[in-house]
Amino acid sequence: MLKRLFDPAAMYAHRLETSLNEARMAAFEHENAAEHHTALARMYRQRIARLEAELAPATAGIPSRLILDPAGPIPRVTPLKKPREPHQRMPAYLPQGAGG
Asked: For the region Disordered, what residue ranges are annotated (predicted)?
């Protein structure tokens, strides 16, 4: 039994198997990363085309919806959270006396 555990050929075969599994996992991870980067590159190419299409009328002298009318209303940005009353207390995370 000890010969099987300490046999140099068995140890080397085990080390080779471990290295092979690590190489397979690394290849799998890199293939996934390559797919992700390809999808990102495609998305950015589409974004560039969309932005160039929106900018084309503005550079050709045609009024664009991107250029705001100075006499028009100013766009407002509203917060997503509901406003709190100025003196409203924050709720406690635990009820009083419920600590452990």
From this structure: 73-100
